[in-house]
Amino acid sequence: MTTQIITHVHPSGEIQKYQIVEDFQWKNLQFESPGFNKKAxxxxxxxxxxxxxxxxxxAYGTLVFFHIEENTKHPFILADEYSNFFSLNVAxxxxxxxxxxxxxxxxxxxxxxxxxxxxxxxxxLQLQGLLDIVKGDGNxxxxxxxxxxxxxxxxxxxxxxxxxxxxxxxPTDLDSPYCELGTPHGLALKNGTIFNPPLNHRPxxxxxxxxxxxxxxxxxxxxxxxxxxxxxxxKSNAIFHYRPDERVTPQSKGTDIxxxxxxxxxxxxxxxxxxxxxxxxxxxxxxxxxxDTTVCxxxxxxxxxxxxxxxxxxxxxxxxDTLRCPFYNKELDSVPYPSTVYPLxxxxxxxxxxxxxxxxxxxxxLLWAEGAGKLTYxxxxxxxxxxxLELATFCSNMGYxxxxxxxxxxxxQILYDxxxxxxxxxxxxxxxxxxxxVPLVLTL
Length: 444
Known about the structure:
3 domains
């Protein structure tokens, strides 16, 4: 494995730095989660405080970011007449938001609740660093659960670590009560095993067993889904519901199985389920129970590696110079789907970028386009960041065969032998680099 830094000079005299990593094998590349780090709670709260709420304080009330580990003693109900929850974090957020909506939880210098047991539980979460609060100027309290995978790439010991997937982050991404901030979405596949299913009709970059890469369309409905020993097939013995095609499942006399990543997070009788933004729902005509919540996907066993994140940059040596897949809701009445706030336009919106694919020899290549710092920028000294068109142009000029855009912006970084050779765009007020928590990385 080798790495190099290339500095591109724009006609304006501004510069763009790229880190290129090559000479590694697909068979050695692995998907990995950093694992939950409670510092993620305060870092997500900081990002909201600075990047979101500060821009429009009147649009937000009290935002409560939290995470509850599965074995925690708690006061929440996980099963009732209609639903069974297999995620404590999701069940708690639904219960807490209902209490807040009814006025039984409110903020008055601190979080207060009519139920003393709930108030004590929230106080304890905050004391443990598992709850943080961001105040806007608006009314109401909103509880936002954080996904259990959110952690920091720098905590992983490996020769190469790079962030991969988009994940639910913006308020517009949290459109269903089954959403957790930090949930990754899009295909993640290694040696035929699918960790994340394909979603949102976006192209996938895949490598077959002969190390031949391609960019292709793979749909959720192409797969069989196995849960608790039962295999479900779309329009055979079940119906798969997903964004952006639908927002809510139809009313039924059967069971909705609610899935994110490779886990069942809940089942619900009667239909009318708001589909998770980073997941899907399987509707079946009968009432069932589930013991094993692990989800196994079948149908891509012949694929060595697969990933689905952003748009392709190069396909079969040809530049992809427009956004050819769904990424953004332009119509107010359309069904929300992530990422609903995307750095458009394709041609000019600059940010830090990550791309992955194959070079002219057919070998694996990884690319980081350094972004401009969020607080300071010196022309000719700091990187400008790259638009998607600029990234695609660079990849094409390098003669790459197939390249796909991964998660960029403040999340973009490559750790090579434990070091960052370029700078993260996110910064603290001191201008020190601020590592953003992410749920999924690739390691070597």
